[in-house]
Write a structure and sequence with these properties.
single chain; mainly beta; Immunoglobulin-like; 2 domains; five-stranded antiparallel sheet; four-stranded antiparallel sheet; 48% strand; elongated
Length: 230
């Protein structure tokens, strides 16, 4: 009985040491695109945008002293491999296609100490619309879609171009076009204000389209109804 207890103690002390000594590498990535404040989730990669990968080794010593080998769709990227080169970044082309990225950490004797791979596919940019309240600011908890019930006489909407290759929603490369079924000139600003007709009940359809003048594949559109007079 005493021998069994001693064996259990030995196992309890040796197992954590084995886990700490594991040699692994994590491969993380994110798209270099615009997302709205308080956006939850990864910054996705879209067509004609830049994507960056970062290798994070564990149990292999100082990351700056390790030798990294990057492989893209089965082709070794020799020009960016080497000591301390733990990042890979490239721009997607107009003919977007999925990519398989692999990173190997190599010893001085050309032995693979750890490796990781990831499959990524470009996504389409999307358009998010939020009410800009004069009291509470942007209502990020509720995206405007389908039917918006107008509770006051007027409402201001702001467009957020998600997954576009721009620094902000006010970037000069983004073109906005708002229009309604009640006529009038189209608005070409990031934010617009609509006012309900006096003593009227009904609904008005709002349509918005945005495009990136520098990236021909980056565009998005959306439509919804404003209901008023209830």
């Amino acid at each position: 009985m005493r021998k069994i207890a001693s064996l259990v103690v030995i196992l309890l002390f040796t197992l954590p040491i084995f886990k700490l000594g594991a040699q692994t590498v994590d491969l993380l990535w994110q798209g270099e695109i615009y997302v709205s404040p308080f956006y939850k989730g990864r910054s996705l990669w879209s067509s004609e945008s830049r994507i960056t990968f970062v290798a994070i080794p564990h149990g292999l010593g100082n990351p700056a002293n390790l030798n990294y080998k990057w492989i893209k769709n089965g082709t070794v990227l020799g020009n960016i491999n080497g000591i301390g080169k733990n990042t890979l970044s490239f721009m997607d082309s107009i003919l977007s296609r999925p990519q398989t990225i692999e990173v190997d950490i190599i010893s001085q004797g050309d032995t693979v100490l750890a490796s990781a791979s990831v499959f990524v596919a470009p996504t389409s940019p999307v358009l998010a619309i939020y009410e800009n309240s004069p009291l509470y600011g942007f209502m990020f908890h509720k995206e405007t879609s389908n039917v918006h019930e107008l509770k006051d006489k007027e409402v201001t909407f702001t467009a957020f171009p998600l997954f576009f290759s721009v620094l902000s929603r006010a970037d000069n490369a983004i073109n906005y076009k708002w229009s309604t079924n009640i006529g009038g000139e189209a608005e070409i600003r990031n934010s617009v204000t609509y006012r309900a007709p006096d003593d009227a009940t009904g609904a008005s359809q709002v349509e918005i389209g945005i495009s990136n003048t520098d990236k021909i594949t980056q565009s998005a559109g959306k439509s919804f109804l404003i209901q008023f007079g209830k």
